Amino acid sequence: MSAYVYILRCADGQLYYGSTNKLIQRLRRHASGQVKSTKWRLPVKLLYFEEAETLAQARQRERRLKNRATRRKTIERLIADFAPERLVPFASVASQGFQAS
Description:
Elements: E1 3-9, E2 15-20, H1 23-31, E3 44-52, H2 55-66, H3 72-81, H4 91-94, E4 98-100
Parallel strand pairs: 3-4
Antiparallel strand pairs: 1-2, 1-3
């Protein structure tokens, strides 16, 4: 089973870090306002994601990204170096109030 860690940019400019084993479904929940922490910061835009073998590994990576010890420049580099074509599968979610970069 695959799992994902992802980074969104919210309408207020803040980054949101999350993990899930069903990325498209989770993005749809963000887009429809069903996620408490992004509900009032719509629309959100997918900037980055990476795959992990298990949800536990994805959650561990999410915690590392959120940790203040992870430098802001490292996060910005991850986002800048992320290939935009990898976001193409999420374009259908964009029509539902979600933006794929």
